[in-house]
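Second attempt. The first submission of Threonine dehydratase had a stray character pasted in from the spreadsheet, which I only caught after the job came back as garbage. Lesson logged: always re-copy from the clean sequence file. Corrected sequence (112 aa) follows.
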Amino acid sequence: MSECKTHANHEHIHGKNCGHTAIQHGDHVDYLHDGHLHHEHNGHYDEHTIEVSNKNPDGCHPVDTCKGHVHGEGCGHEAIPHGDHIDYIVDGRLHHQHGNHCDDHGPVEIVK
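This time the job returned cleanly.
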């Protein structure tokens, strides 16, 4: 059993109508809040990360859909933790800025 990585001082209650993007993560739903994936657990919120996997690989997988666009703070896409880095959600997929191109790190399931 792994230890909780707790998000300190979290006063907002996440749920179906909280206004944050809901992401299916394994057997549960996390809420994307200020670049963090939050999951309610025993009266607190854990910080989760999308794991690097066959579905959501790391590394260089260039896509040409982001030509002229640079992902980063204020780019208009939601930041989401993936492995040891931050990706951005673009049309239900994880995009990662890599030098002068964008890599596709696989799909995420947004819960409506």
